[in-house]
């Protein structure tokens, strides 16, 4: 029965086949463009900021594996949920940011009434001149 319709309406069948082919091609092109954009963005960011000195990846037990224990005292971690508690616990400075009560209790410090710039103020970075120095700009 389906074959009979294909032979009765060849132009409609051809248009359907072309539409399906174009749809598949569009999906593949979109995926390819997305991968290229992501690769270019990664390359641009890496060129601007350099490679990360410390990369944390999940370990087999779901917690992070830390090979560089001395570096952890220099890490500042900011989190808001219970899933962030292990990170806040091992970091040199753990800050609960607009967090739930349980997380505020588990973190060393908590910020609840200001934005992320409050973390900078907490660290003593208060004025535009300091921010310009951190960014490498001379005033």
Explain what you see.
- This protein has about 140 residues and is mostly helical.
- The protein has 2 domains: about 1-50; about 70-135, Rossmann fold (3-Layer(aba) Sandwich), CATH 3.40.50.1000.
- The chain is built from 6 helices and 3 strands.
- Strands 1-2-3 form a 3-stranded parallel sheet.
- The chain starts with a helix and ends with a helix.
Query: At CATH's second level, what is the architecture of the largest domain?
Result: 3-Layer(aba) Sandwich
Helix-and-strand structural type: mainly alpha
Largest sheet: 3 strands, parallel
Spatial ordering of strands, largest sheet: 1-2-3
Query: Which regions contain 5 or more consecutive residues with pLDDT less than 50?
Result: none
How big is the Rg?
26 Å
Q: Approximately how much beta-strand content do the residues carry?
A: 5-15%
CATH fold-level assignment of the largest domain: Rossmann fold
| Morphology call | elongated
What is the CATH superfamily label of the largest domain? HAD superfamily/HAD-like
Write the layout of secondary structure elements.
Layout: H1 2-8, H2 10-49, E1 76-79, H3 85-90, E2 93-97, H4 101-106, E3 109-111, H5 117-122, H6 128-135
Parallel strand pairs: 1-2, 2-3
């Amino acid at each position: 029965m389906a074959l009979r319709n294909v032979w009765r309406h060849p132009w409609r069948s051809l248009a359907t086949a072309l539409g399906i082919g174009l749809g598949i091609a569009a999906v593949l092109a979109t995926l390819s463009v997305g991968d290229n954009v992501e690769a270019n963005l990664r390359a641009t960011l890496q060129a601007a900021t350099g490679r990360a000195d410390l990369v944390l990846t999940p370990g087999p037990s779901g917690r992070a594996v830390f090979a560089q224990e001395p570096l952890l005292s220099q890490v500042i971690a900011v989190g808001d949920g219970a899933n962030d508690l292990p990170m806040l616990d091992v970091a040199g400075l753990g800050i609960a940011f607009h967090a739930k009560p349980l997380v505020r209790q588990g973190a060393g410090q908590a910020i609840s009434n200001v934005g992320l710039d409050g973390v900078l103020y907490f660290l003593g970075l208060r004025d535009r001149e300091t921010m310009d120095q951190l960014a490498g700009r001379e005033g």
